[in-house]
Design goal:
Elements: E1 7-8, E2 11-12, H1 13-35, H2 43-59, E3 83-85, E4 95-96, H3 99-113, E5 120-126, E6 129-136, E7 139-145, E8 151-153, H4 156-159, E9 177-185, H5 188-200, H6 209-217, H7 222-226, E10 231-241, H8 249-258, E11 268-270, H9 273-285, E12 294-301, H10 304-310, E13 320-324, E14 329-341, E15 347-358, E16 361-367, H11 371-377, E17 384-388, E18 396-400, E19 426-427, E20 435-436, H12 444-454, H13 467-474, H14 495-498, E21 503-504, E22 524-525, H15 537-549, H16 554-560, H17 568-578, H18 581-586, H19 589-593, H20 600-611, H21 613-624, E23 646-650, H22 658-667, E24 671-673, E25 682-685, H23 691-699, E26 703-704, H24 706-715, H25 717-727
Parallel strand pairs: 4-13, 23-24, 23-25, 25-26
Antiparallel strand pairs: 1-2, 3-8, 5-11, 5-12, 6-7, 6-9, 9-10, 12-13, 14-15, 14-17, 15-16, 17-18, 19-20, 21-22
Helix pairs in contact: 1-2, 12-13, 16-17, 24-25
Bound molecules: nicotinamide-adenine-dinucleotide and zinc ion.
Keywords: DNA damage, DNA repair, DNA replication, Ligase, Magnesium, Manganese, Metal-binding, NAD, Zinc
GO molecular function: DNA ligase (NAD+) activity; metal ion binding
InterPro entries: BRCT_dom, BRCT_dom_sf, DisA/LigA_HHH, DNA_ligase, DNA_ligase_AS, DNA_ligase_CS, DNAligase_adenylation, DNAligase_N
Length: about 725
């Protein structure tokens, strides 16, 4: 018999082995997480192991013995504190990850309760740690951690220091004995400040708010606890004696609030699973709105009698379910720290990591900003690191998992010379955090970045000149010489020049070469010719597009020059006021500073830019190649219906780009700003508007959608304000 088909009491040996292995992994992770407050694996990894364990036991029920980790809660208390027997067992929660999981939970509850278990109370799953508070005759008698559910750590002295936890209950009909359960946490802002303080004191920062709360609550010296911003929110009851008992979870919350206990406002009772799903989806998008971190939503059967009927499994109630959002933190290996060179010569260290999926995308690089930040984060090459990616925010290396070090890790050393052109790096001015390569004219990295930028949608808008092509033009593999040595060469390119170019593929975010996972080597491409050495479609497109780009409006041409501080809005102001490159070049610093939207600082950088000979050469070579250097005379102004109003544009508007929407507003005399303030007259919000939308709601700034925007352009601001008032449907809290 082969090993894979061997069985012990009907269970394949392979399954037995895996079960034992997973049990060890889970027990060890729990100990590190609950007792040491020093996890070495991510929650996602833990959940994956736990899920696999559950699945194995479902397939082979005999594996589900009473000492399996699936039958237990948390971990036994640490021994650093007095032990406490809980008055009623504290449980965990079962996890759901999909709408199907929720439906399966509801169906099982419906079967067991012999009827619809709704309505449901939906609330946020706070990422903190569980606590039980005992009040006898209204006085706080004891606070204890969950421990293994039966026995916990006595942290009463520390709990007494938590702001918002009453030492005496108030109100009518207070039970003679009540045990409330809740979550102790540190708000995100408090966590940020706490970590800043720790770093200032030369102490290691906490990895995340949950960890900081756990470490703080289990401090041996309550004076330390008292100085930290711990908070608590109540979300359940263990014991309730000597007063009329509530009948629902929501009524319980109302009563607890009357007693002076901290209860969240962010819960909602809903009739069916449809609204439960809506609540879950709402907070998936608004996950970072609350002041504290959440890792999901908890859904509870509201009726307490139904809760009792449904009862509990060995570790979790059947009447509640924790829906978990995808993890925003994972662990991965820091393979290397490499430095990239940006458009302005800034030299930035990048973490190069073993690829991992986090918040729905694969991440293998993350900026580390500068050498001081690498130091501050304390990461070494070879470390296992915590990588965080919250929604669409760029990924961030949080810090090392120091418990996993084996001595082979090594420190990162910031290079002294540009990794791409060898020039000695320098600070531009004293006190700068960033080192730069001063070789702006000839550093191939800076040329690559500038060419790529110049081809962008808001500049020359050249299709066929993406990052790979920009690399090929500025950095071909030897023996080829670069065909673009500065931007001046761009409009003189010919098909013949392009054909032989081979180059390395680079990552547009970091500028670092991409590695082919199969060969472990840099990827090389021949972009502009096919196998027979004939021009590729991409090469023809590029030549065509360059021809077209010779006619772009002046504002876009200005953006393409990479003059510092001259982005699209400033370029528009310059172009509108002076209408030609020559006029801008010949204007005095005072004349430039007098233009609306341009201050003395920007005027000075513009003047400086045009004084550099190789910059002027770009202008002259482009002019000679036939690039248009001026705008048509100003068009007849239409009615200035939006005079004196300020707008902010966000999201995607059908039929407009962000720029064309701004132009339409400007043509009617409106001002376009980049951020929402009290002075904003209207926010124009297309689809997928983000934080600007929330800010406008908070400040009471009227919001126009695509239809409202059309009304604004056609019929003016009064008509649009009416439309906005009608459409103002605010999201519920
Ligand atoms: N990284 C690791 O090594 C490691 C190890 C062990 C556990 N963990 C993490 O802990 C989880 C398991 O821990 P658990 O058993 O505490 O379960 P859980 O965190 O999945 O759910 C139960 C807990 O949720 C808390 N909670 C938060 N908000 C709540 C609310 N509104 N209503 C009710 N309860 C609420 C309660 O304190 C309760 O004890 C894992 O899924 C993993 O994320 C990680
Ligand atoms: Zn350089």
């Amino acid at each position: 018999m082969s090993e894979s088909s061997a069985e012990v009491e009907g269970v394949p040996v392979a399954a037995l082995k895996r079960h034992a292995e997973l049990s060890d992994l889970v027990e060890d992770a729990r100990w590190r997480y609950y007792v040491l407050d020093q996890p070495t694996v991510s929650d996602a990894q833990f959940d994956a192991w736990f899920g696999e364990l559950l699945a194995l036991e479902e397939a082979h029920p005999s594996l589900q013995t009473p000492d399996s980790p699936t039958q237990k809660v948390g971990a036994p208390p640490s021994g650093d504190f007095a032990k406490v027997q809980h008055l009623a067992r504290m449980e965990s929660l079962d996890n759901a990850f999909t709408a199907e999981d929720m439906a399966a939970w509801q169906a099982r509850a419906e079967r067991l309760a012999e009827g619809d278990p709704g309505p449901y109370l939906c609330e946020l799953k706070i990422d903190g740690l569980a606590i039980a508070l005992v009040y006898r005759d209204g006085r706080l008698e004891r606070g204890a951690t969950r421990g293994d559910g039966r026995t916990g750590d006595d942290v009463t002295d520390n709990v007494r220091t938590i702001q918002g936890v009453p030492h005496r209950l108030t109100g009518d009909d207070v039970p003679s004995l009540v045990e409330v359960r809740g979550e102790v946490y540190i708000p995100v802002e408090g966590f940020r400040r706490l970590n800043e303080q720790l770093v200032e004191q030369g102490k290691p920062p906490f990895a995340n708010p949950r960890n900081s709360a756990a470490g703080t609550l289990r401090q041996k010296d309550p004076r330390v606890t008292a100085q930290r911003p711990l908070r608590m929110l109540v979300h359940g009851v263990g014991v309730w004696e000597g007063a009329v008992a509530p009948r629902t979870q929501s009524e319980t919350y109302a009563r607890l609030r009357e007693f002076g206990l901290p209860v969240s406002d962010l819960y909602k009772v809903v009739p069916t699973l449809t609204e439960v799903d809506e609540f879950i989806e709402h907070y998936r998008v608004h996950r970072h709105d609350p002041a504290y971190e959440i890792d999901g939503v908890v859904v509870k059967v509201d009726d307490l009698r139904t809760q009792r009927e449904l009862g509990s499994t060995s570790r979790a109630p059947r009447w509640a379910m924790a829906f978990k959002y995808p993890p925003e933190e994972v662990n991965t290996k820091l393979l290397d720290i490499q430095v990239g060179v940006g458009r302005t010569g800034r030299v930035t260290p990048f973490a190069v990591m073993e690829p991992v999926v986090v918040s729905g995308s694969t991440v293998e690089r993350a900026t580390l900003h500068n050498a001081a930040i690498v130091q501050k984060k304390g990461v070494l090459i070879g470390d296992t690191v915590v990588l965080r990616k919250a929604g669409d925010v760029i990924p961030e290396v949080v810090g090392p998992v120091t418990a996993l070090r084996d001595g082979s890790e090594r420190e990162f050393v910031m290079p002294t010379h540009c990794p791409e052109c060898g020039t000695l790096l320098a600070y531009e001015k004293e006190g700068d955090a960033d080192l730069r390569c001063p070789n702006a004219r000839a550093c191939p990295a800076q040329i690559r970045e500038r060419v790529y930028f110049a081809a962008g949608r808001r500049a020359l808008d050249i299709d066929g000149l993406g990052y790979v092509a920009a690399t090929a033009l500025s950095q071909p593999l030897p023996p080829q010489e670069p065909v673009v040595r500065t931007e001046a060469d761009l409009f003189d390119l010919t098909l013949e020049q392009l054909l032989p170019i081979r180059s390395v593929v680079r990552d547009p975010d970091s500028g670092l070469p991409k590695i082919d996972p199969k060969t472990g080597e840099e990827k090389v491409v021949t972009l502009f010719s096919n196998q027979n050495g004939e021009p590729s479609a991409g090469a023809r497109l590029l030549i065509q597009e360059l021809e077209r780009a010779k006619q772009v409006p002046l504002a876009q041409l200005l953006v393409a020059l990479s003059i510092r501080h001259v982005g699209p809005p400033t370029a528009r102001d310059l172009a509108a006021a002076l209408r030609s490159i020559d006029a801008i070049m010949n204007a005095s610093e005072e004349e430039l500073a007098a233009i609306e939207g341009i201050g003395p600082r920007v005027a000075a950088t513009i003047k400086e830019w045009f004084e550099v000979d190789w910059h002027r050469e770009i202008i002259e070579r482009w002019r000679a190649a036939g690039v248009r250097m001026e705008d048509e005379p100003a068009p007849e102004k239409g009615p200035q219906t939006l005079e004196g109003l300020t707008f902010v544009v966000t999201g995607t508007l059908e039929g407009y780009t962000r720029d064309s929407a701004s132009d339409a507003l400007a043509a009617r005399g409106g001002k376009v700003a980049s951020s929402v303030s009290k002075k904003t007259s209207f926010l124009i919000a297309g689809d997928n508007a983000g934080s600007k939308y929330d800010k406008a709601v908070t400040l009471g700034v009227p919001i126009l959608d695509g239809a409202g925007f059309e009304v604004l352009l056609k019929n003016g601001p009064e008509a649009a304000a009416e439309a906005a008032a009608e459409a103002a449907v605010r999201p519920e809290a």
